[in-house]
Amino acid sequence: MNCIYCGGSIKGMPEDIQYSLDDLAKFISRDKEAIVAFYGGEPLLKIDRVIEMLSLPAQKFVLQTNGFFIQKLGDYIHRFDAILLSIDGRKEITDFYRGKGCYDKVMEALKFLKENEYEGEIIARMTVSYKTDIYKDVMHLLKFFPYVHWQLDVVWSNLWSWKEFKKWAEESYKPGIKKLIKFWIEGIAKGNVAGIVPFLGIMKRILHGERGLPCQAGEKAFAISTDGKILACPIAYDFEWNLLGDFKNYKRIRIGGECLKCDVYEICGGRCLFFNKEKLWGEEGFKEVCNVTKFLINELMKYKDLCKKSKYKFNYPEYNNTTEIVP
Ligand code: SF4
Ligand code: SF4
């Protein structure tokens, strides 16, 4: 599809799986609470492989998909605990980033899930870049999806520099976030909690003290490349720090550097391991992204007491459903 914010396929990783399913099953069975998530590229391009892997000894299965081939899964949809559909907001925004017709395909996929009474979580999974109006795009998706999550197109973006990001953040993103939080909090006061994943996940960390890197990459979450390597983060195939080992031997890796001294570290957890390790936008770009992260956390902090008093438990997500929480 060549979505414009993406760098395309990962060079050097074989297209087909090189390890045996038995070896993978043995590896996974060491974790009694294993969650297996399929991501890509587009995992359903290899739909037979995905179906075969639903026999793995995992407690939960998660699927991240563009929705184009979901109908081919048939009743297998019910085997997934969460399905994340990639959609970036309003039709013109989604189709601008991801290609013409993409929005309609995702909406067809959503209709298919609803018509087939899918009972797992359905999450709209957005990438947010310079065309996005965070308030309008999230509000649009909330009309159709129970949960909406987004990730910022920063640091390894194809589309803009940190200076352009900074301008957009001040003029568009931060005011939009304020408006969105206002909407969310007004809902909570009336007992109606909108499924805005970054807000839910950050509030959970504020109220219940959950710590560590939210995506858990390198510590509790691992990506397995097609050649059977264990990676911390799925997107950084060719970075040495990211290669943790193989099914037999592997190490773990943690956030380091300035995050450990940061005043919001307890809540932020370091945001993203790749971001922490590779400063592709330099020190200034790193600071600008952190500025936005701190803004979001501090805005939500203002409503800590109100949320504490609410009947809602703020326990979302209950497991690692691959939403990285801090955008
Ligand atoms: S805001 Fe930035 S420096 Fe602070 S913990 Fe998060 S990623 Fe690290
Ligand atoms: S949040 Fe960052 S470290 Fe975690 S999986 Fe995503 S890209 Fe990798």
Unreliable stretches covering 5 or more consecutive residues: none
Relevant CATH superfamily: Aldolase class I
Distance between the termini: 23 Å
Biggest sheet details = 5 strands, parallel
Which cofactor or ligand species appear? iron/sulfur cluster
CATH class: Alpha Beta
Instruction: State the share of residues found in helices, binned by percent.
Output: 25-40%
H/E topology pattern: HEHEEHHEHEHHEEEHHHH
Give the tally of β-strands: 8
As a percent range, the share of strand residues is 5-15%
Oligomer: single chain
What does the average pLDDT come to? 96
The rounded Rg comes to 19 Å
* Tally of separate domains: 1
Structural class, by secondary structure, is alpha/beta
Q: Name the overall outline.
A: globular
Describe the structure.
- By secondary structure, the protein is of the alpha/beta class.
- The protein has a single domain (21-307), classed as Aldolase class I (TIM Barrel), CATH 3.20.20.
- It is 37% helix and 11% strand.
- The chain is built from eleven helices and eight strands.
- The chain has helices at 21-29, 47-53, 91-98, 102-115, 134-142, 162-189, 197-208, 265-268, 273-277, 282-301, 304-309, and strands at residues 35-38, 60-65, 82-86, 121-128, 147-152, 223-224, 230-231, 243-245.
- The strands form two sheets. The protein has a five-stranded parallel sheet with strand order 1-2-3-4-5, with helices on one face. Strands 6-7-8 form a three-stranded antiparallel sheet, with no helix packed on it.
- α5 packs across α6 and α6 runs parallel beside α10.
